[in-house]
C-alpha cells in the first residue's frame, strides 16, 4: 500500500512539476529572451523583440514588442507569448485576443528587486515545464552574488555613484524601488539618488552638488558617452570627472535578467579593484 502511495505521489508531483510543452515561443524583451535561453528553450524561440541580442539567436526574427501590432502577433502563430510591463499593450484585451486564437500568454509584473527577477524565472519555468532548470539558474545567481556581497558588506566607507542610462538631455537615472539600485547596494556602492524613487531625469546641478566618486553610464546612443559626460558645462568640479572615474557599462545592466550577478560583479570590481584578489 505504501509503495502504491509513493508511486501515485511521484506521478502527481510530475504532473504539477511539468508545464505545457511549447514549441513556438515569442519573447517580448531581452531579459525574457535571456531567461528562455538559460532554461534550455533557445530552440523553441520563433520570434523576439528588436532589442534581444543573445549570441546564438542572431537568425531569429525580430518584431516590435514595444508598440504591439495585434496583426503581427497573430501572424507569428506562436503557442506562447511572454511579455511584460515594458511592452505597450492593454493587458486584458491582448491576453484575451491571443488566447482566443490559441496562443497562451505569460504577463510578467514589474521588476523592482532582484527577488522579482527570481520570480520571473520561476513563472516562466513553471509554465514551460522547466522548474528544475529554473531553480538551478536561480541558485547559481544567488551563489555568484554571495561571492561579491561577502566582500562588499565589509566595506565601511562606500563610494558614491551616479548611474546614467541615457544621454543628455533625457539622462535617466534611478532611485529606490528599482532593481538596479539594489544591484549598486550589493556591489558595495551608494547611489547618490537613493532617496529618490523610480526612474527620473535628474537636475544637472543636483548631480554636481552630490559630487559622486564614480560615474557609470550604460548609454549606447553615443559613440563616446564618456567624452560627452566630461564635456558637460560646470561638471568639471565633480570628483569623478576630475579624477577620470567614469566607466561605460554594457546596456545589459538595465535588464532584469539572469545576468544580474555579472553586472554586480563588474560594478564591484571597477569600484574596488584593490579587493578583487582579496580572498
Description:
- By secondary structure, this protein is of the alpha/beta class.
- It has 11 helices and 11 strands.
- Strand 1, helix 2 and strand 2 form a beta-alpha-beta unit.
- Helix 5 packs antiparallel against helix 6.
- The termini are far apart.
- The N terminus is likely disordered.
**What's the N-to-C terminus distance?**
54 Å
Strand order of the largest sheet: 3-2-1-4-5
Portion of residues within helices:
40-55%
Main β-sheet, in a few words? 5 strands, parallel
Structural class label? alpha/beta
As a whole number of angstroms, the C-alpha radius of gyration is: 22 Å
- In terms of DSSP E residues, the strand content is 5-15%
**Rough shape?**
globular
Beta-strand segment tally: 11
Mean pLDDT score: 87
The helix count comes to 11
Give me the strand/helix succession: HEHEEHEHEHHEEHEEHEHHEH
Low-confidence blocks of residues: 1-18
Any descriptors?
alpha/beta; disordered N terminus; 4-stranded parallel beta sheet; 279 residues; 11 strands
Amino acid at each position: 500500500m505504501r509503495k502504491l502511495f509513493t508511486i501515485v505521489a511521484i506521478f502527481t508531483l510530475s504532473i504539477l512539476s511539468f508545464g505545457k510543452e511549447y514549441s513556438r515561443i515569442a519573447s517580448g524583451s531581452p531579459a525574457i529572451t535571456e531567461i528562455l535561453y538559460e532554461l534550455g528553450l533557445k530552440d523553441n524561440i520563433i520570434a523576439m523583440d528588436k532589442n534581444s541580442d543573445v549570441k546564438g539567436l542572431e537568425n531569429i526574427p525580430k518584431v516590435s514588442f514595444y508598440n504591439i501590432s495585434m496583426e503581427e502577433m497573430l501572424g507569428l502563430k506562436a503557442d506562447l507569448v511572454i511579455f511584460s510591463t515594458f511592452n505597450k499593450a492593454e493587458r486584458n484585451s491582448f491576453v484575451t485576443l491571443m488566447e482566443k486564437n490559441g496562443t497562451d500568454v505569460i504577463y510578467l509584473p514589474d521588476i523592482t528587486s532582484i527577488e522579482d527577477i527570481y520570480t520571473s524565472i520561476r513563472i516562466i519555468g513553471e509554465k514551460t515545464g522547466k522548474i528544475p532548470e529554473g531553480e538551478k539558474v536561480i541558485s547559481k545567481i544567488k551563489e555568484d552574488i554571495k561571492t561579491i556581497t561577502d566582500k562588499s558588506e565589509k566595506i565601511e566607507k562606500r563610494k558614491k555613484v551616479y548611474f546614467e542610462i541615457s544621454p543628455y538631455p533625457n539622462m535617466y537615472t534611478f532611485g529606490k524601488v528599482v532593481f538596479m539600485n539594489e544591484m549598486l547596494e550589493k556591489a558595495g556602492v551608494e547611489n547618490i539618488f537613493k532617496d529618490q524613487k523610480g526612474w527620473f531625469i535628474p537636475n544637472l546641478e543636483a548631480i554636481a552638488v552630490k559630487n559622486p566618486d564614480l560615474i557609470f553610464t550604460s548609454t549606447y546612443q553615443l559613440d563616446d558617452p564618456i567624452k560627452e559626460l566630461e564635456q558637460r558645462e560646470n561638471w568639471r568640479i565633480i570628483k569623478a570627472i576630475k579624477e577620470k572615474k567614469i566607466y561605460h557599462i554594457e546596456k545589459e545592466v538595465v535588464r532584469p535578467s539572469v545576468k544580474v550577478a555579472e553586472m554586480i560583479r563588474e560594478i564591484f570590481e571597477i569600484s574596488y579593484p584593490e579587493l578583487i584578489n582579496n580572498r
